[in-house]
Amino acid sequence: NAGVMQNPRHLVRRRGQEARLRCSPMKGHSHVYWYRQLPEEGLKFMVYLQKENIIDESGMPKERFSAEFPKEGPSILRIQQVVRGDSAAYFCASSPPISGTGGEAFFGQGTRLTVV
Amino acid sequence: AQTVTQSQPEMSVQEAETVTLSCTYDTSESDYYLFWYKQPPSRQMILVIRQEAYKQQNATENRFSVNFQKAAKSFSLKISDSQLGDAAMYFCAYRSWSGGSNYKLTFGKGTLLTVNP
């Protein structure tokens, strides 16, 4: 059973370009979370999605950032018109359908975005 | 909102010795989960150990154990018989017990552990 797959591992974009980060959850997992890790910082929650639904986007910047988790295919975190401050490691985590108090989250290896 | 504080930016330990990493948190909830994650240079986030707040018994996983003090809101990680492969950044994290949108993890800033041979 493959783990959470993120690609690309490294992404370089020039200022003003778009960045698309992909996350394929573990098999059987229908919940996806995106986190951002700035240098010297812990991970900060961005968005929580279930298939075709955004459940909690309280950590997402109001502009330029969007996320989706379509019925088919991976979850996508999209950053439009990137700026240098977007440079960070972006992590995806997934968990199975949550019943009661379960639903352990497993992380991918992250995508390191560098904006030049 | 919950907060997690790790007051030790860096720690070092001799191989085979024991080290304790500190974590405190703030919450008004009575039921929740606490976690320690390890992040080696590969950047992979690896779950080390988890604790349910309703359990009085401290969690243990092989050489890793926690000291969970609910009243003090303290959750320290003890690594016994430290190995070179334990060198990594360690993050303490909090997660609410309830469902809905409260499944997000709140992380501390991390403690960088160096293991000296």
Condensed summary:
The complex is a heterodimer of chains A (116) and B (117). Chain A is mostly beta strands.
* Rg value of chain B: 14 Å
Q: Count of helical segments of chain B?
A: 0
Helix-strand sequence of chain B: EEEEEEEEEEEE
- Average pLDDT score of chain A: 91
- Largest interface between protein chains, with number of residues from each side: A-B, 28 and 23 residues
Major sheet summary line of chain B: 6 strands, mixed
Give the biggest beta sheet of chain A: 7 strands, mixed
Shape of chain A: globular
Strand residue percentage of chain B: over 45%
Oligomer: heterodimer
Share of helical residues of chain B: under 10%
Give the termini distance of chain A in whole angstroms: 36 Å
Envelope shape of chain B: globular
Cα(first) to Cα(last) distance of chain B is 41 Å
Number of strands of chain A: 11
Topology:
The complex is a heterodimer of chains A (116) and B (117).
Chain A: E1 5-7, E2 10-13, E3 19-24, E4 31-37, E5 43-50, E6 53-56, E7 65-68, E8 75-79, E9 88-95, E10 106-107, E11 111-115
Parallel strand pairs in A: 2-11
Antiparallel strand pairs in A: 1-3, 3-8, 4-5, 4-9, 5-6, 7-8, 9-10, 9-11
Chain B: E1 3-5, E2 10-14, E3 19-21, E4 24-26, E5 32-39, E6 46-52, E7 60-61, E8 64-69, E9 74-79, E10 88-96, E11 105-107, E12 111-116
Parallel strand pairs in B: 2-12
Antiparallel strand pairs in B: 1-4, 3-9, 5-6, 5-10, 7-8, 8-9, 10-11, 10-12
Would you give an account of this structure?
- The complex is a heterodimer of chains A (116) and B (117).
- With 116 residues, chain A is mainly β.
- Chain A contains no helices and eleven strands.
- Chain A is globular, with a radius of gyration of 14 Å.
- With 117 residues, chain B is mostly beta strands.
- In chain B, 0% of the residues lie in helices and 52% in strands.
- Chain B has no helices and twelve strands.
- In chain B, a hairpin with an 8-residue loop joins β10 and β11 (105-107).
- Chain B is globular and about 45 Å long.
